[in-house]
Amino acid sequence: NEGALWGGRFASGPSPELQALSRSTHFDWRLAPYDLAGSHAHARALGRAGYLTEADEAEIHRGLDVLGARFADGSLRPDPGDEDVHGALERLLLDEVGPEVGGRLRAGRSRNDQIATLLRLFLRDHARVVAGLCLDLVDVLAGQAAAHPDAVMPGRTHLQHAQPVLLAHHLLAHAWPLLRDVDRLLDWDARVAGDSPYGSGALAGQTLGLDPVAVAADLGFTGSSANSIDGTAARDFAAELAFVLAQVGVDVSRLAEEVILWSTAEFGFARLHDSWSTGSSIMPQKKNPDIAELARGKAGRLVGNLTGLLTSLKALPLAYNRDLQEDKEPLFDSVDTLEVLLPAFAGMVATLTFDTERMAALAPQGFSLATDVAEWLVREGVPFRVAHELAGACVRRCEELGIGLEDLTDGQLAEISPHLTPAVHDVLTVPGSVAARTGRGGTAPVRVTEQLDEARARAEAL
Ligand code: ARG
């Protein structure tokens, strides 16, 4: 078992079947730069504590730099005999600087505190990338909102026409969840930053008087684990991030579903740009919303990664168990998925064109101005119970006549109730309806303009 990190107490090497099961280099190799950064920091800690001469420490940093450069140019590769990234890099460092010097680096650390640290480092970097991509999508939504300041559309509940809203208002309703997701990512990062496990050893801490706080600072953390068992065994940080990533996927999937609907012939609200849609191999006329469909599908995959991870963690006794090796693939998959999905999705949204005339024509359908009639009556002093009844009576009358609320004549209105004076016509238009919703957060153009500024300021501040 040459080159392995263990073996002293074993009379024979691992079976090929065990090796095949145990090996993780095919997925954890991407942690190599983080492992090397950890080793640099650890070498400095060993040097400060007197376990490495200046010359030996310099030689280790040199060796690690060589490995880093070879990783960057793609020439550094694990061997089939390497169990994981940590073992592979130790073997490669020994090749570079010799066993005498290289063999000193492992003192006072374990793969258990290493992996718990490296995973945090990797995820912190990628959480930042995902946050940036979410903000790019927010920017695109804000841009589309700004480009359509007065376009109206049917607002829906239960997918049925409910009340007219501004298209900009609806688009911004997809931006706010993403802003909260970015907030969650930052919040998560601040929590993870305080908890560097390096120095926790296998589970019980180390005896060499190394300074974990200095190592933590070296690696960009603000603090080190207060409990070495927790430091090596906890993966709530991983599950928490998997949740936020799944939530991003779910938030995007809700807009995806609408884009899919909007681009059908039946809705006809939006058209996809040729560069951001796909054709059919058999049906020449087809233009498909594949990006939106992949977004919808990948949301399921992100949720699966979260539930898989939580299931692996459930009831796992302290401290480190090899089960924990299963944490990496779902997390890597979640960040990879969003890093490829979000730019495509943002491009699709940025290039959507809206048929604002059709949306405006459909906005008053389904008697979507009935609430406006009721609220107009309330402003005229009629109790809401009565107002609701009267507006309902208007709808019934319109259904009988096969017309819209806006088509009722003064006479027909007065027949329903003397309260329904001709002035009610002011709110029986879609622009009148939206303009009247001036409460904070409402769909009135003045409020939506403010909201757009607020969303942009929020994104700026994140
Ligand atoms: N490769 C392991 C992981 O990903 C870290 C090594 C710890 N292995 C061990 N046998 N203690 O979790």
TrEMBL record:
Q: Using the record's annotation, list all stretches that form the Fumarate lyase N-terminal domain.
A: 18-304
Q: Keywords in alphabetical order, please.
A: Amino-acid biosynthesis, Arginine biosynthesis, Cytoplasm, Lyase
The protein's matches in PROSITE patterns, at most eight in alphabetical order, are given as: FUMARATE_LYASES (PS00163)
Q: What class of enzyme is it?
A: lyase
Q: Where in the cell is it found?
A: Cytoplasm
Domain of life per record: Bacteria
Domain spans labelled Argininosuccinate lyase C-terminal: 367-435
Q: What is its EC number?
A: 4.3.2.1
Gene Ontology MF terms in the entry: lyase activity
Recorded hits in SUPFAM superfamilies, A to Z, give:
L-aspartase-like
Task: Give the reaction(s) catalysed.
Answer: 2-(N(omega)-L-arginino)succinate = fumarate + L-arginine
Involved pathway(s) = Amino-acid biosynthesis; L-arginine biosynthesis; L-arginine from L-ornithine and carbamoyl phosphate: step 3/3
What the entry lists under PANTHER family is as follows: ARGININOSUCCINATE LYASE (PTHR43814)
Q: Into which family does the record put it? A: Belongs to the lyase 1 family. Argininosuccinate lyase subfamily.
What is the name attached to this protein's record? Argininosuccinate lyase
**Source organism:** Nocardioides marinquilinus
Lineage at the top is: Bacteria, Bacillati, Actinomycetota, Actinomycetes, Propionibacteriales
Q: Which gene encodes it?
A: argH
